[in-house]
Amino acid sequence: MSCDWLLIDGSSMIFRAFYGVPAGVRGPDGQPINAVRGFLDTLARLIVQRRPRQLAVASDEDWRPAWRVALIPAYKAHRVAEPVPPLLEPQMVVIFEILSAIGVDHLGVADHEAEDVIATWSALTSGTVEVVSGDRDLFALVEDPRVRVLYPEKGGLAVVDEAEVTRRYAVPGRRYADFAVLRGDPSDGLPGLRGVGAAKAAELIRRHGGVPEILRDAPLPEADRDYLTRAMRVVEPVLDLPITLPSGRRDRYPDRPEEVAALAARHGVKGACDRLMAVLAAMG
Prior knowledge:
Layout: E1 3-9, H1 10-20, H2 34-50, E2 52-58, H3 66-71, H4 78-81, H5 89-102, E3 106-107, H6 114-124, E4 129-132, E5 147-153, E6 156-160, H7 162-169, H8 176-183, H9 198-208, H10 211-217, H11 222-235, H12 257-267, H13 270-281
Parallel strand pairs: 1-2, 1-4, 2-3, 4-5
Antiparallel strand pairs: 5-6
Helix pairs in contact: 1-2, 2-5, 2-13, 5-12, 8-9, 8-11, 12-13
């Protein structure tokens, strides 16, 4: 099955490449290039498997935006205790240098995460969209038949559409954000409502429709009302960043051949670059 757009959560995929490829993979200068090679090869495989017509990569310009922390102080607090690994940080720069030279559109927006860029891009296109991310917050974008998430699991990529959201969480397919806010999500630092677990959260959503309806209809302590209002602003990806939809493809690849050749030689990733450029040239 092909799609109009394949939108990649670049930060998520880079981390998975870093931990999925042995750290002993090094370039000619002895520096680790495991994340670089793993990311480029994963991107090439995705293009072959999903057959998109257009492609773009989003990145976290801010791992833990201050405006989200101001609303929920515990928001992704683990990112303070577990910063970007020192061996990964320089590889992230290399990955985006290579993408730029090849001609793959990529973007990060100040004070925002990759999920916000992806959400805004999704809102700007009327075409079919597949989002590749390990961030469950993006399940909030699922919209049959237009938008679905490809979520990495041990067995491969799980295709998350509205039916899959319902199967996993027993809520209507477009209500994942409401569910996460009510139940809580340790990975995001969301405490949830006191005494509300997965089953209770799902039951509240089925009865009322979602958090806005719960706020309107249900008798709640003022502290709970305040939490729900703030948490929904934190969890829901931003849909209206001041960005445009990129072209998503080039008439030819690579965009800057000499720069690609120099980067590939310097970092020992010529094979990975060649594979990516070959599948990009055949895309669509």
